[in-house]
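LOG
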Amino acid sequence: MAAEAGMLELPFTRDEQLTRRMRLRFQSLQQKDVRPQDGEKLLHPNEHIYRVEFIQQHRLRFLRWDMQLERPGKVTVTGTSQHWTPDLTHLMNRHLLEPVGIFWKKLGAKEVECNEADAQEFGERIAELAQIRKVMYFLLTFTGGLEPAQLKGSVVFKA
């Protein structure tokens, strides 16, 4: 939780079970030499599924992203618009939201940078979606040598 009164800090939680399921789907298709469904999104090795659980859903106003990268690299955060039941529903490209949040840290830099306009719009969209769901899933893509263990991230709202 954010230390300041009226703030709600919701962390990104890595969903290893869901990521594993999606990787098994990809392997299964490869082994059977079957094509994915039209428009289905298959995970690349540098992509992982995370979730944010909304302990409060209403009257949230996006304030900021709190993304900490332990080393130089880039992480792209893409929201999904579907209520996910991965055993019944595959992730489809049409469910990936825009804009995405792109966060990076340059060699020798202390601060994480981002495209402020897209990050702001994305955060506001998350606040809107929080009103209709308790959990939201995200596809995080790591590049530039960055790994999931080197990320600590959250979304901060005014509650």
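LOG (cont.) second protein
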Amino acid sequence: MSGYTPDEKLRVEQITTLRRKWLKDQELSPREPVIQAKPLGGVAKFWAGFLEPKSLWRLYTYKAYTGGVFTLTRLLIPAWIVHYCVKYHIAQRPYGIVELKPKLFPGDTILETGERVPDLPETHGHH
């Protein structure tokens, strides 16, 4: 036995018809939605005006954003990369920009002031 029985054919046809009708009912007419629009609150009113094309706020915000992106991507990040390469790879001394002061031990003379570093006090008892 091949194919659908007459009952199965009728059921498939009815389901197909119902699906088509349901899909047609989902389309909105030009009069829908029927619900009246509520008046906008303060914040919503601000954003509705702010997001209008060619509004002054939108233009200035866009200019500030593009200026910030340009500054970050074309100036600050490349300057940081160059600084890093010069400081840690190209400089003659390793870590050449930061130089450590020489260590001072008891009895040494401080070059800038000429003072002598006092000796450590002699303590007797525990080591």
